[in-house]
Amino acid sequence: MGTLSSKAWYKRDARVVMMGLDFSGKSTILSKLKSNEPVKTSPTVGFNVASLETPGHLSLSLWDVGGQDKLRASWKDYLEDTDALIFVLDSADKTRLPEAMAELEKVLNNINMIGVPVLVLANKQELPGSLSLSELQKMLNLEQFGDRSWELRGCSAHNGKGIREALLALAELLKSQDKNSCECV
């Protein structure tokens, strides 16, 4: 167990962990995915978990892990047996972007994350002055993590734009991971 081949597509539920700094919009994204209704959220202490189904009929257990500074030390505890990571960035908060990038790098360097596909969601795209996807791609340098499939997508948890498309992108990342893991068997 614990090899890439154990992360098979036939798995009944893919385990997806969603991380990011506090106030990046993780819980709002989760509530949009669950009900497409706006929900007033407060900072997550610990985690929220929800079962979802992608448009391709893939069942997901989506773990929304709190992003407050004092909670990030426990992030490593959520990474074992992870099939995919969603990392949420506040694309309008340029001052915290270096902190977010450092945390993303820590997560991706965790032994449990080897080969795990990553969907980076640039949230709050509707806000004036938010960084574009091309600006973020240059700053994030995700190419340095060439041992995995990854995708950068823009979205707005506030108005829902890009959320469903992000779920489709996640399903594709999981499918590509399955193809890669089958080649290793």
UniProtKB/TrEMBL annotation:
Annotated gene: ARL11
Any GO BP: hematopoietic progenitor cell differentiation
InterPro entries (alphabetical): P-loop_NTPase, Small_GTP-bd, Small_GTPase_ARF, Small_GTPase_ARF/SAR
Membership in a protein family: Belongs to the small GTPase superfamily. Arf family.
Family annotation (SMART domains): ARF, SAR
Keywords: GTP-binding, Lipoprotein, Magnesium, Metal-binding, Myristate, Nucleotide-binding
Binding site for GTP: G20, L21, D22, F23, S24, G25, K26, S27, G67, N123, K124, Q125, E126
Function, as annotated: May play a role in apoptosis. May act as a tumor suppressor.
Gene3D superfamilies on file: P-loop containing nucleotide triphosphate hydrolases (3.40.50.300)
Pfam families recorded: Arf
Protein name: ADP-ribosylation factor-like protein 11
Organism: Pelodiscus sinensis
Positions annotated to bind Mg(2+): S27, T44
